[in-house]
Amino acid sequence: MATRKWWWAAAVVFLCAAAGCRKGKEGEAAGARVVARVGERGVTAADVYRGLYPQGRPKDARVDRDAARRVAEQLVERALILAWAEEHGLRVSDDDVEARLRLIRADFRARDFASYLKSQGLTPESFKGIVRDDVVVEAAIEAAVVEKVSVSYDDVVAYYSVGADEFEVPAEYHLKQIITEDRAKAKASLAKLKYGAAFEEVARELSMSPDRYTGGDVGYTTLDALPPEVGAVVKKLPPGRTSGIIETSYGFEVVKVVGVREARRKPLAEVRTEIEDRLRTEREEEAYGRWLEELKKTAKISVDESALAAL
After folding, report:
1. pLDDT digit string (tens) for 189-202?
2. In the chain, where does the domain assigned CATH 1.10.4030.10 lie?
3. How much is the average pLDDT of 279-305?
4. What interhelical angle do 94-105 and 124-144 show, nearest 10?
5. Which residues pair with 176 in a beta bridge?
6. Could you name the CATH architecture of 7-151+281-309?
7. Considering only CA atoms, which of 22, 49, 16 is closest in space to residue 38?
8. Distance CA 118, CA 250 (A)
9. Calpha distance 210→250 (Å, rounded)
10. 123-153: buried (b, 16+ CB within 10 Å) or exposed (e) per residue?
11. Region(s) of the chain under CATH 3.10.50.40
12. CA–CA gap between residue 274 and residue 35 (Å, rounded)
């Protein structure tokens, strides 16, 4: 599956953290109080705790009520998606589930994984059920949202035209520098340069900046990234020229402009993929929100406020 894993993952999928939004009264039978229901699917207090404390609940931990409510709402959304998947006969393969389990286990040593399951009150089989639901949720979002969103070339061109300033690249200056703690050393640096010493040699000998080991070479940078007093001088120096002594808050500097990349606007071909991804992300987020609202309109959802308050 080519599911895009960014905007919806944080909102719905509780991989390795949340519970499986149990169907029927299984959660109650396990001693967990149901705090919300979506049709026959129950969200239990244990489910919320797992969402709040993915590494296990510390002893005497005080529950943040607002955070608990947000987790409960996310689990309700998860249950809505699972119900939609069931209604539409959406299934995932055992191979997909096993592949996901292998990825998860790879992040644990064998004993650590067993300890993690114990801290969450899970068995290997119940955890596998959670992972299966994760994969189902992804597949449902792929089918109901992602596959229905498209971005045309005309859309990209329109975005590029309207957001022209966004793709402007400022001028960049390739600089070398000598930084000294006092003016006397800065003067000595200029004198050596005047009598033919290579900038790199003087930087290695007299500069106190870490880049002295590379001959004072700081690479390309923009004026905005420089101290104002240095930027004001660099802006006026043609390539190949060396400045006089520039007094700064951190010492005295002599700078050489090696080369300049002029300001430019990135061509459409260079930013096309970036724009497509941005537009697709925005449209998928919007489509996902609309889809969830539609699911909520037709679903039977109930929340036990007293159970939430008792967490």
Report:
1. 999 999 999 999 99
2. 7-151+281-309
3. 94
4. 120
5. 217, 256
6. Orthogonal Bundle (1.10)
7. 22
8. 55
9. 13
10. eeebbbbbbbbbbbbbbbbbbbbbeebebee
11. 171-262
12. 42
